[in-house]
Design goal:
This protein has about 350 residues and is an alpha/beta fold. About 25% of the residues lie in helices and about 30% in strands. The chain folds into 2 domains: about 1-150 and about 310-340, Medium-chain alcohol dehydrogenases, catalytic domain (Quinone Oxidoreductase, Chain A, domain 1); about 155-290, Rossmann fold (3-Layer(aba) Sandwich). Strands 3, 7, 8, 11, 12, 19 and 20 form a 7-stranded mixed sheet that branches. A 6-stranded parallel sheet has the order 15-14-13-16-17-18, with helices on both faces. Strands 2-1-6 form a 3-stranded antiparallel sheet, covered by helices on one side.
Length: about 350
């Protein structure tokens, strides 16, 4: 079968790979849609991110959904013919952190399309995938396979919202208007935020933020001074979500935060020089938000109940044979928000 394999930076190939065997607790899924994520782009352009580096060819992709074609002898609750969103996270369930209910920090995690461990864990950009029944989450009949593939990024966002604490009546700043930033704006509104401001360095992605209910959008490249008015009275934001992965952006967030406010880092980037004195005097809280666990099923239910509409974020769907074209399009934020591969 066909699979999208990264061999090295800018060396993306459509390779032929063997199908996986089906165990008694497994589900075979014919993949219908796969969203190209920021981490996929890091592997494509740079061979990894931070200390995570490609050491061997790897199938990419972890935002995936498809149709069940076969189930193992012990599988219940998932049926042939169902559309499922596939949870790319497979924690071991027995390590210290899994036992504490912190499965996203599993010491033996197998996350699709990740070079964090060696041998790398191949991803879901393939025609057919075998996963455990726990990973195959049925979606409502009114949810398309393309919408179902948004369950993973929406789960990331819901985990970040949980890490922030209550947003009821809060003034929220979201720094970065990529797919995660836009979904954060939609989820923050659902969580009761009173005011939502979104920033980016391009106008095109900010239009998507406005479409999901952002109260104000600021192009900080074109109008850098527009954010300064939020600095008054020791800062005006109760919660800041850093979704750009930029160290410089994170450093600037501190001056915009109210005393005892919370900064949640969602974007993964390089190092940042932080004003520790400002963190101390503001009694600010700096929190990370890494992946998700139980939020995946919540995201699937949100999609089915139409509590968050992801449809407008899908700007293009590209056939798997044109995967390189899809990756190049997804890399151009002036032309795309979310690009999916069609299998």
């Amino acid at each position: 079968m066909k699979a999208v394999v990264v061999h090295a930076p800018h060396d993306l190939r459509i390779d032929t790979v063997e199908e996986q065997p089906l165990g008694p607790d497994d589900v075979r899924v014919r993949i219908g849609a796969g969203g190209i994520c920021g981490s996929d782009l890091h592997y494509y352009h740079n061979g990894g991110f931070g200390t995570v580096r490609l050491k061997q060819p790897m199938i990419l992709g972890h935002e995936i959904a498809g149709t069940v074609t076969e189930i193992g002898a012990s599988v219940s609750g998932v049926q042939v013919g169902q559309t499922v969103a596939v949870n790319p996270s497979r924690p071991c369930g027995v390590c210290e952190y899994c036992q504490r209910g912190m499965q996203n920090h599993c010491l033996d995690m197998r996350f699709y399309g990740s070079a964090m461990r060696f041998p790398h864990v191949d991803g879901g950009f393939r025609e057919v995938l075998v996963c455990t029944q726990a990973q195959a989450v049925p979606v409502a009949g009114n949810v398309s396979v393309g919408e179902a593939a948004f369950a993973e990024p929406l789960a990331v966002v819901l985990h970040a919202i949980r890490r922030a604490g209550s947003l009821l009546g809060a003034k929220v700043l979201i720094m970065g208007s990529g797919p995660i930033g836009v979904l954060l704006a939609a989820a923050a509104r659902r969580a009761g935020a009173a005011t939502i401001v979104v920033t980016d360095i391009l106008d095109a992605p900010l239009e998507f933020a406005r479409s999901v209910g952002a109260d104000e959008t600021i192009n900080v490249a074109a109008r850098p001074d527009d954010l300064n008015r939020h600095e008054g009275a020791k800062g005006t934001f109760d919660v800041v979500f850093e979704a750009s992965g930029s160290g410089a952006v994170l450093a600037s967030a501190i001056r915009l935060l109210r005393p005892r406010g919370v900064i949640v880092c969602v974007g993964q980037g390089g190092e940042a020089a932080l004003a520790i004195s400002a963190i101390v005097t503001k009694e600010a809280e700096l929190r990370g938000a890494f992946r998700f666990h139980e939020e995946f099923r919540t995201a699937v239910s949100f999609l089915g109940d139409r509590l968050i509409d992801v449809g407008p974020l899908l700007t293009a769907t590209v056939d798997v044979d044109d995967a390189v074209k899809g990756f190049e399009l997804a890399s151009d934020k002036s032309r795309s928000m979310k690009v999916q591969l069609r299998f």
